[in-house]
Automatic annotation (TrEMBL):
<dbReference type="InterPro" id="IPR047057">
    <property type="entry name" value="MerR_fam"/>
</dbReference>
<dbReference type="Pfam" id="PF13411">
    <property type="entry name" value="MerR_1"/>
</dbReference>
<feature type="domain" description="HTH merR-type">
    <location>
        <begin position="15"/>
        <end position="84"/>
    </location>
</feature>
<keyword id="KW-0346">Stress response</keyword>
<protein>
    <submittedName>
        <fullName>Heat shock protein transcriptional repressor HspR</fullName>
    </submittedName>
</protein>
<dbReference type="InterPro" id="IPR000551">
    <property type="entry name" value="MerR-type_HTH_dom"/>
</dbReference>
<dbReference type="InterPro" id="IPR009061">
    <property type="entry name" value="DNA-bd_dom_put_sf"/>
</dbReference>
<keyword id="KW-0238">DNA-binding</keyword>
<feature type="coiled-coil region">
    <location>
        <begin position="81"/>
        <end position="115"/>
    </location>
</feature>
<keyword id="KW-0175">Coiled coil</keyword>
Length: 142
């Protein structure tokens, strides 16, 4: 669903009242309240305690409905699926962050190595080349 967000808002900004969220998700308002109590969807709250749903919440409500109706997953299973998907998303974000940190560290190490190599003196250093011949003779046997 494409939705033009007001300036300064995005898909995570809670601004739909429960009746609008119910209509957008195709569910009954009481179902939304139940899902909130179960922890499936956690809408924002106003200072008075009223629920405010974001566009991301609406999408999640539709996914809960799809999983339970079309896939036959019970609500406990739906909750676990949502938790696992959130965990996977967090892990992907962490891997991305660590990959960027690693690339930055490697670039810094390469720059430091290049700096060290650039600081080497390029003067010729005299080396004495002497050779000596040593002959080994075994001593008397004991």
């Amino acid at each position: 669903m494409s939705f033009p967000f007001p300036p300064g808002t995005d898909e995570d900004t809670p601004f739909f009242v429960i009746s609008v969220a119910a209509q957008l998700s195709g569910l009954h308002a009481q179902t939304l309240r139940s899902y909130d109590r179960m922890g499936l969807v956690s809408p924002g709250r106003t200072s008075g305690g009223g629920r405010r749903y974001s566009m991301r919440d609406i999408v999640l409500l539709r996914e809960v409905q799809r999983l339970s109706q079309e896939e036959g997953v019970n609500l406990a299973g739906v909750k676990r699926i949502i938790e696992l998907e959130n965990e996977v998303g967090a892990l992907r974000a962490r891997v991305h962050q660590l990959t960027e940190e690693l690339a930055s560290a490697m670039a810094a190490a390469e720059q430091a190595a290049a700096s060290v190599h650039a600081s080497y003196r390029r003067d010729l250093v005299p080396v004495r080349h002497e050779t000596a011949l040593v002959v080994w003779r075994p001593g008397p046997k004991r």
